[in-house]
Amino acid sequence: MIQMNNVVKKYPNGVVAANGISVDIKKGEFVYVVGPSGAGKSTFIKLMYREEKPTSGDVVIAGMNLSSLKNRQVPHLRRQLGVVFQDFKLLPRLNVYENIAFALEVIEENPKEIRKRVMEVLDLVGLKHKVRMFPNELSGGEQQRVSIARSIVNMPKVVIADEPTGNLDPETSWEIMNIFEEINARGTTIVMATHNREIVNTIRKRVIAIEGGLIVRDVYGGDYGYEG
Amino acid sequence: MSVMYTEVTTAMKGRTIRRHFRESIKSLGRNGWMTFASISAVTVTLLLVGVFTIIMMNLNKVADDIEKDVEIKVLIDIIADPAEAKAAEATLMEEIKNMPGVAEVVYSSKEQELDLLVDSYGEDLSLFEQSNPLNNVLYVKASEPQQTVDIAKKIEKFDNISEVKYGEEKVGKLFSFLNTSRNVGLVLILGLLFTAIFLISNTIRITIIARRDEIEIMKLVGATNSFVRIPFVIEGMWLGVLGSIVPMTVVSIVYANIFKIIEPKLNGELLQLLDVTPLLYQVNALILVMGILIGVWGSFMSVRKFLKV
């Protein structure tokens, strides 16, 4: 599902955020990406949804080689992915329903299908009763659930999450993790960058540790490995 | 996993087009003051374009009319012997006819000339019928009015010519006046055009910044580039269209009234204004099209610069 082959990413300011990364993530896997701040986690994540282009090396996602992907083909890649962020990135003027439907409207899905799928994902994240509320009326955990719902509403093959629990209290973080596990159980590949050692050590999955732009550890069922 | 490099190119659906229009109109209201400034700039520009176009089109018509009327009057020397005179006149006429650029030569005897004078100035002049002091005349027309001066100068060198008259000063001054005013007008309008385009692209830039988050999410979930861009271009088009309403109205009303007042006074004269139709249709169409072009161009500049999609 995701292959990286000797990927190097050098930013114009000289920072080398990926210094020869090779990795192979299979369909249906759940992968944590851990490592200290500034080690290259975010770049690793951004390379997957082509927010950043590799300086050299190949990134292949769902059969598409991102190194040779033309700009106008990027929308096609993005429709195969769901992306979740630490800061939710919800639109404040739209209510819960509209925020999720937005993801389907802009890819010109038909209205009947939009309605059906939005209600499905709202059910999955347990927010059906708050469908008409606006983001500022929701707690952080609820907002993150809306953003997860939006990321999966177009039925992506891969969900990429960049510190999805970074802004949430521990209890809420567990709820969010349950949702990710549920999504993963339905066959969606999940790649999650995180600093949350407790979660990594409890819900044991494959752990990829990145330091200085390199993968220094890649263990199935591994632990967080850094001191909190 | 199959390799799919297909681009996302779904034909735009009616509901998408409606969405783009809705978004563009919403954001006009959201950037109130910038919208107002842009529309005002377009209005001023197009008003000048309209006024200038109408003036130039009328001046061109006057120039055309005058040009058509410009002719060279060649006064032939008075020769005592009638046979000799006739021969000389025939040669002269032949020579002039064969000059390049001459369209037409008409002979008018001194008796005919006197008749013309009597017609214009009254019977008093009929006294001269006894001893006509006038010359026989050749009227020469150039096929291109601009050649009039050249032809006249060449004719002066021929034999048996007493004088060559043409509206030398009048024609020259008219042409240079037309050219100068055309150039001044164009420079003025170009300057205003750039101002209007600059203001529109700024308005669109503000729209783009205001909707940064929305655009980011659109891109993340796989909206096509044109889907992201089109509402901004439509917004620019609105600015142009809205900016052309006042100029179209003002130009139409003012010209129609001027025409109504002035035209009767010009009746029968050489100078005439262009008719209200089709002139106003043409000018209004020009204003509207230019408004749309300014708007679309202005927003394109912003979209290209600030919307890396």
TrEMBL record, chain A:
GO term, biological process aspect, one: cell division
InterPro entries (alphabetical): AAA+_ATPase (IPR003593), ABC_transporter-like_ATP-bd (IPR003439), ABC_transporter-like_CS (IPR017871), ABC_transpr_LolD-like (IPR015854), Cell_div_FtsE (IPR005286), P-loop_NTPase (IPR027417)
CDD domains named in the record: ABC_FtsE
Membrane topology: Peripheral membrane protein
Keyword annotations from UniProtKB, A to Z: ATP-binding, Cell cycle, Cell division, Cell membrane, Membrane, Nucleotide-binding
One MF term in the entry's GO annotations: ATP binding
Coiled-coil annotated residue ranges, if any: none
Domain ABC transporter: 2-227
Keyword Plastid: no
One Pfam family hit: ABC_tran
Intracellular or extracellular location(s): Cell membrane
Family in the record: Belongs to the ABC transporter superfamily.
Role description: Part of the ABC transporter FtsEX involved in cellular division.
UniProt-recorded name of the protein: Cell division ATP-binding protein FtsE
